Amino acid sequence: MNTTPRTVLISGAGVAGLALAHWLARHGFTPTVVEYAEGLRSGGYKVDVRGAALTVLDRMGLLDAARALRTEVRTGTIVDGRGKRAASMDADTFGGRVHEDAELLRGDLHRLLHDSARDGVEYLFGDSIAALTDTGEHVEVAFASGRTGRYDLVVGADGLRSATRNLVFGPDDRHLTDLGHYIAVATVPNRLGLDREEMTYIGAGRTALVYSTAREEGARAMFLWRSPALDYRGLDRAGRERLLAEAYAGEGWEVPSLLADTASSPDFLFDSLSQVKMDRWSRGRVVLLGDAAHCASAASGQGTSLALVGAYILAGELAAHAGDHAAAFGAYERRMRPFAETNQALGPANVKRMVMKTKGQVRFSLAMLKLLNKMPGKERMLAKVVEPIHRAANAIDLPEYRIAEGDLRLRK
């Protein structure tokens, strides 16, 4: 078997790209990660690692370190427009987690993965792919900075709005399916004095929540709302903040204060809730990974786990099929596609529970939550609601790739 190290350019230093760099380096490849941000991203929302992804972290030797970085959020509470509590429960039940699952801040996970993938990995921060040409023998890459490079393979791990995907497979409108909702996330002052708590407000077509963790002084706010298509891609930050404010005009609870605080947030995010669906994830010497290939949307709760599992499998298959990238890409997609599609199915179903359509539905849901909150065994009843997430999180048999005497063989 040919085990000569191969040069691989990874576009994107998110969870998928960093995890892939870790595994490629361990398998004897020479990875380069290019990221248009000036450094690792520290913002974003808290994320869950579940099911098969926990096994991947364990095989990386990072599971204990990841669990040490847990947010330690203790309780979740749902309130109405007057701030009256409809229900409170422990945070794991509220977030649909079982005892083994790990909830981390995305930035903490980025740092953990980056620290595990320093040796043998080159990082190009503050740059991006401007153009690429697949010659059949290699990929010629022109970067936005003006530098050029030649790589055996290129991996697009650059998220929902993947520039790599656009260059190789065409524009977003060919691959994105919008779920009719929008999301905004911002770091805000902890004006409510939350102590490892999460509070959620439910309005008609509008959900807003804010939480604090053991690892941050401030708080994070998230807004999730139903809307017809918004023309926001060409807007600057101020324009997007206006759209958010218009969407939540007249809402109760602490929503006006949270909206006002987004103006000073250092990491304001605004995007559609969308999924990526493609007929194939590779073309020639270019392959897609994570959200770039199969974004399940934030509503699925599974994007981070899909990224970790996909990176493990892609690197393992490239090593197991050394010298034949086409066979490796095919094996990677055959293993990952059913898993990705199972988890994508969670998104549309979950968002219906996260955002109520009408005031009547809001009143009914709050009344049921208040009733449930008084019943013994409520945690067991709520756990049944999130069973589909855990089935989906474990809906793949992970092969065990190993290096032995210079060869990497597929053991299972």
Automatic annotation (TrEMBL):
<feature type="domain" description="FAD-binding">
    <location>
        <begin position="7"/>
        <end position="341"/>
    </location>
</feature>
<dbReference type="GO" id="GO:0071949">
    <property type="term" value="F:FAD binding"/>
</dbReference>
<protein>
    <submittedName>
        <fullName>FAD-dependent oxidoreductase</fullName>
    </submittedName>
</protein>
<dbReference type="InterPro" id="IPR002938">
    <property type="entry name" value="FAD-bd"/>
</dbReference>
<dbReference type="InterPro" id="IPR051704">
    <property type="entry name" value="FAD_aromatic-hydroxylase"/>
</dbReference>
<dbReference type="Pfam" id="PF01494">
    <property type="entry name" value="FAD_binding_3"/>
</dbReference>
<dbReference type="InterPro" id="IPR036188">
    <property type="entry name" value="FAD/NAD-bd_sf"/>
</dbReference>
